[in-house]
Amino acid sequence: MSTLNFAIIGTGGITLQNHVPGLKLCPDVKIHALCDANPATLEAARKETGAPVTSTKWEDIVSRDDVHALIIATPNAFHPPVAIAAARAGKHVLSEKPLALNAVDAKQMAEEADKAGVRHMTAFTYRFVPAMRYLKHLVDRGDLGQAYHYRSCRLQDWGTRNLGWRQQKRLAGTGEIGDMLSHRIDFAHHLIGPMKRLVANLMTLTPTRDGAPNDTDDWVAILAEFQNGASGVLESSKLASGTNESWRSPDRVELNGSEASFSFTTGSWNELQFGKVGGPGLKALAIPKEFYTWPGSPRDPGVGDPLVSFRYDQAVEFVNAIREQRSCSVTFHDGARMQSVTDAALRSTAARQWVDLP
Q1: Cα–Cα dist 312/304, whole Å
Q2: Are residues 144 and 258 in the same domain?
Q3: Which of 26, 119, 231, 232 is the most buried (most CB within 10 A)?
Q4: Is the model's pTM score more than 0.90?
């Protein structure tokens, strides 16, 4: 097909910030249809994109013959029914993370998409950060040596403001672990490999947010053992007072191996910290310019805020995978693998004990 017609289901902030600018980079791609349960949100997105088709019901969109691919950016509970219906209708699907409220549903999404022969992608956006891409390259090249430790810490100050559907378990499933730690769990899988077992704790320290009930976690910590013998320590919080938000807040991933250590900070998109075994300490390691953009992306890394614009390469990869009839670099299987860790963390917290991963 010469032109790919996209539909976007869920047209809130993440759609306008990440998905729409990414699709606009892609030649012969049209944002053709939009859906959102909120008419005002839907109209704002229609004005932004000029999409000729709109509806407040996703069922009206997924079966349309003039829609070739979908992006799902709804509350988490709706990801599985929309994605499965879309796959069965022959549509390629990119879904926001977490894919589902549990691993069973996430795995079904992957299986249905595979069965339908459509391209499928989980929006683990931080894999497209230049520094993360280069770190993966170095690990694969063997510069880390034998992996000893994986460590991540994501701290933000969200206070007690109302988070809407994200603080409702029936719509979100989880809070901080699904919202922010999901990316770092995916980093762990991407860089180190699958986990073998874990022990976790999740806490809800704000039972109300701006007067509204909150039954999701706002702090989580996981101690993990990987199948290759490496250890993992992962922590994430919405309540680290005074630390700010987004890339302005502490967000670090560190790897220690037999040959070297590497440290990645989201705010430093074009730099890693690196130290050789027996060396004096970590020092700056510049990212080669060939890693500034995703292969095949027409994005100019010198245009716009690089801490935002790297996210646009995600849509480029999705579109290119569709056109090249190949698997996406991040699939629903990656999202399901992350969801298995989330489920295990919930079981561990409830039982207060170690839990084995499947």
Answers
A1: 11
A2: yes
A3: 119
A4: yes
